[in-house]
TrEMBL record:
Residues 398-418 have a biased composition (Low complexity). The keyword Transferase applies. This is Glycosyl transferase family 1. GO terms for molecular function: glycosyltransferase activity. SUPFAM superfamilies: S-adenosyl-L-methionine-dependent methyltransferases (SSF53335), UDP-Glycosyltransferase/glycogen phosphorylase (SSF53756). Keywords: Transferase. Residues 172-328 form the Glycosyl transferase family domain. GO terms for biological process: carbohydrate derivative metabolic process. Gene3D superfamilies: Glycogen Phosphorylase B (3.40.50.2000), Vaccinia Virus protein VP39 (3.40.50.150). The keyword Transferase applies.
């Protein structure tokens, strides 16, 4: 595979803003993995590109040979879609977006529409899109629908990492509370809102230090005028842009980060603050609602001066609140990814996908967070409690054994998993998604638990890590976790070897016979147990009001198409679909394992309107799969889809979907 890339950015690459720092850290991480990275900074004006900018991008792209691999930062890509389009057919182009250009603060409605349309036009010519937050991925899809410009390229989420940092000390008694704001001086960052909020409060024991370049001279002057007008010149300081050492010193003096932004595509400074153990006071603008973990800070609506003022007052006055939020920040600090892990995820996103999988992801596959959230409660209701309890009992005994050999830790692990702590259960969750499997099992397992989460989607992994913070075991104790953003195409991963129990949910139908053989061999080698939940059997049917099966020729015809489609390559070899469960059970029995099975079907009743969104998703998913399998029958399939959707909406039919759970345990303990 070609490991030479050119990264193109707008302006000088060494600018100290979140987006440019992200780009620089990813470049470093990719180089550490053996990639050759050439970084090109374009002169000219962006994003309202002038002739200098256009000519610079044209010259850069024309200088690259046929098939060269290029990453274009969104500020440059979205500004010049025609230039990108001229080269999209001969270059392998990846778009890197931090947030949509048209979502910048201070634009007129016409300017917003112009930038949205320009960016979507550029995305039509790229091979893949990488965004820095799941929020931005959702936002892009919303814009694509709004403007009628669907994005055909697969979208991957690679969230920023953090640099390991020492914990900033807590405030001493009677010490002024030092608030730190790290953001460029532009209207979107909201420093004017911050000054007004600070001016209106009655608390007097604070000092606010603002670091960030004056990117908007008029706005910077306005903020300084507000400081002077409210008599805060001795308490609010605009320090301007600074180097890394100065900023680190500021973090060490601070007691909280304040980020009053109207909108953020991710908000890297939030995780940087958490890496220092600092609580965060911010808004819910854009991705910030997702970026700040619960319990690690305070959030208010963007632009709400009174709410921000109240949050600042509470923080400055209440020692107990500050202590509580520092504890929450410390917990969040332990779950942050480093830049090496982000680099691995970025490399995964750059890897060309098998055509079938690329098409599936581009269309919005079943692995998207919305689908996973939709099915979570139904999975939990259908799963076998008996097999989960049996796994818990076996795990409690197994985790006290030292029979598993230690293995070397992986470079993109978040914790040192090569030396297992006696009495701790180590659990590997394959294809963990947003953490639904862990959410179900962790409260049913007693004793210390350390989860190792594996998924190819960095955005879903981030969501899973956030859920860890709230999870407790059967005795009410917290659990710990590490995450690995890797493809499951190979099971050669040191952290996986370290598990006592391997588990997965709703994964098995995607895998091949060779994949199953590799999994069973690895489990047997390390004497691991395996709990596989909600594996589809390949059977489904519609049901009447008494939940009896409906016999319908069109349903049977579409089911046959669906079963055939199931056996396509989904990225893990020729998929076994509904046959996979039986193959897995047979393979473990051949290894001398004790195998227990349970039927765990979905039973979506016509009389329950809360099930209709899931039934809609199922019908559309089955129809889409059938259309891929038999494109010549698209009209007939659409008629079937419409008929069944109407039946569901009218409350006439329900749906039964076959699933099975499996628990495989070594027959004889070593």
């Amino acid at each position: 595979m070609n490991r030479r890339f050119t990264l193109i950015v707008a302006g000088e690459p060494d600018q100290r803003t979140g987006g440019y720092i992200y780009d620089a850290q990813i470049v470093t991480a990719l180089r550490e993995q053996g990639y050759s990275m050439n970084v090109v900074g374009l002169p000219g004006r962006f994003p309202d590109a002038d002739d200098t900018a256009a000519q610079a991008l044209v010259a850069t792209l024309e200088s690259l040979s046929e098939g060269a691999r290029v990453i274009i930062d969104g500020l440059a890509m979205g500004a010049l879609p025609e230039v990108v389009g001229d080269h999209g057919h001969r270059l392998d182009i990846t778009a890197l977006l931090h947030h949509p250009l048209g979502d910048e603060q201070g634009l007129t409605s016409e300017e917003q529409q112009y930038f949205h349309r320009s960016e979507l036009a550029g995305l039509a010519s790229v091979a893949r899109v990488i965004v820095t937050s799941r929020f931005t991925a959702r936002r892009l899809n919303e814009l694509a629908k709004q403007y009628g410009r669907p994005i055909s390229a697969p979208i991957s989420v690679v969230e920023p990492g953090v640099v390991a940092a020492p914990v900033s000390p807590a405030a001493e008694p009677n010490e002024p509370i030092r608030l730190l704001c790290v953001a460029t001086l532009t209207p979107r960052k909201g420093q004017d809102i911050l000054v007004k909020a600070l001016a209106g409060g009655s608390a007097s024991n604070w000092q606010c230090d603002c670091y960030g370049g004056a990117r908007d001279a008029e706005f910077t002057l306005r903020v300084q005028q507000l400081i002077d007008e409210y008599g805060l010149s001795g308490r609010v300081a605009l320090h301007g842009e600074c180097d890394a050492a100065t900023l680190e010193a500021a973090y060490q003096r601070a007691h909280a980060l304040v980020l009053p932004s109207w909108y953020e595509g991710y908000g890297m400074v939030v995780t940087e603050a958490l890496a220092h153990g600092l609580p965060v006071i911010t808004t819910t603008g854009g991705a910030l609602r997702d970026t700040l973990p619960s319990g690690a800070g305070l959030s208010v609506a963007p632009g709400d001066i009174e709410a921000l003022q109240a949050a600042l007052q509470r923080f400055c006055r209440c020692t107990e609140l500050r202590s509580e939020l520092r504890t929450g920040a410390a917990v969040a600090r332990g779950s942050l990814n480093d830049w090496q892990a982000a680099g691995v995820a970025f490399a995964e996103a750059l890897t060309p996908l098998p055509p079938a999988l690329a098409q599936e992801l581009a269309a919005g596959s079943q692995f998207e967070a919305d689908w996973l959230a939709l099915r979570e409660s139904v999975d939990a209701a259908g799963r076998s409690q008996k097999l989960a309890q049996a796994a818990a009992a076996w795990l409690a005994t197994r985790s006290n054994s030292n029979s598993n050999s230690n293995s070397n830790s992986n470079s993109n692990s978040n914790s040192n998993s090569n030396s297992k702590e006696e009495g701790t259960a180590y659990i590997a969750d394959l294809g963990c998604g947003r953490g639904s499997n862990m959410q179900f099992l962790a409260p049913r397992f007693s004793g210390k638990q350390h989860w190792m989460l594996f998924d190819h989607d960095a955005g879903l992994l981030s969501e899973a890590r956030q859920r860890v913070l709230k999870l407790r075991d059967a005795r009410g104790q917290p659990i710990s976790a590490e995450s690995h953003c890797v493809s499951l195409a190979t099971l050669m991963h040191p952290a996986l070897d370290n598990a006592h129990l391997v588990t997965a949910s709703a994964l098995l139908d995607l895998v091949s016979r060779e994949w199953i053989d590799a999994l069973v061999s690895n489990c047997a080698k390390h004497r691991q147990g395996l709990l596989m939940a909600m594996s589809i059997t390949g059977e489904w049917c519609f049901t009447d009001l008494q939940f009896g099966p409906l016999d319908n020729d069109e349903d049977r015809w579409l089911l046959d198409l669906f079963k055939t489609h199931q056996q396509r390559d989904k990225g893990l070899g020729n998929a076994l679909g509904g046959d996979a469960h039986g193959e897995l059970a047979h393979a473990f029995k051949q290894q001398g394992y004790r195998v227990s099975e349970a039927d765990t079907p979905w039973q979506l009743k016509a009389s329950d309107p809360t099930m209709r969104p899931l039934m809609h998703a199922l019908i559309s998913g089955w129809a889409d799969a059938a259309a891929e399998q038999a494109p010549g029958a698209a009209t007939r399939i659409d008629q079937w889809r419409g008929s069944r959707l109407r039946s569901v909406n009218e409350g006439c039919v329900g749906i039964w979907v076959g699933h099975r759970d499996l628990l495989a345990l070594p027959a004889v303990e070593a």
